[in-house]
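Mitochondrial import inner membrane translocase subunit structure dump, as promised
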Amino acid sequence: MDGLGGGLANVDVSRLSDADKQQLQQFAINEGQKARIQSSIHSLTDTCFRKCIPAGTIKNGKLDKYEEPCMRQCVDRFLDANIVVLRELERLRQ
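structure tokens r here:
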């Protein structure tokens, strides 16, 4: 493995400068946030798909006239709920 991931396994973190340690910590935080977002999107997709699209009903790779609005509304409600939660968390933080 010649990529970045293979080389990082051999890095002695104690030899990094404080600035480099801070950058590495921020990178790890950012990657964790990306993973949580991806997990939420996967969960949303799975939930809405199971709710709106009965097994085996997709034809020609397209949603029918009932499935498409159901998926759109499902995603919209999920996003609305997330916005409400984020606003409340922000309010509690202040």
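The first helix runs from residue 4 to 8.
lmk if u need the other ones
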